[in-house]
Design brief:
Layout: E1 2-9, H1 27-44, H2 67-72, E2 81-87, E3 92-98, H3 104-120, E4 135-140, H4 149-155, H5 180-189
Antiparallel strand pairs: 1-3, 1-4, 2-3
Helix pairs in contact: 1-3
Amino acid sequence: MIYRIKVKPLTRLWTGDEQRKSEVLRETGIIGSLRWWYEALIRSLDGTACDPTNNRKEKCEGKNHCDACELFGCSGWARKFKLDIEESDDEVIFKIIELKKMDDIEFGLLNKTFKIIEDYGALGGKLAENSYGLIKIKENDLEKFQPKKSKIRKYIKRGGSTVDNPNLKRFVFIKKGLKLQFVKKLKGECTFLKGKPGKGKRYSRKLW
Ligand SMILES: [Zn+2]
């Protein structure tokens, strides 16, 4: 099956790297970004998600993999879908093309991922910069997948290697009016915001 998500980029989408200009949207760049948000979502649901860029720890491989790799793949376990990108002047259509049978829960989680990106995040690279990756979803075939929490709970918790960051549980979404006093209060209540020296990154994006 093919599912289409039609998106209007409010700012430019970036999928290039330092050497390459990002003139055409690359599948790998968008998949990488989707996976990042998907991992954060999975962890917030107490599922397991490894860090595919981390070479030091034990890795997901073949049948022994985490909830994120179940959909996005790892060595010995193929990604369940292919992403086609159709660009026009002011719209981008992402086509999710099923390669392996996908669970309804996976479509539902992917739907949620797009919505989180639309509401609070950004798609593609240069996440921490204000001028990239903001999207508005115009049409979304994945809308029909609205899995119940109980079903999601049943679906997640595979084994595999796991890393605890990024996790949506530790995201703070503030739409406007951020004041220093509030930040201080937050730091008192949410100890994770302090981070550990040399570990973790903090990103903030102005949404107003
Ligand atoms: Zn994994």
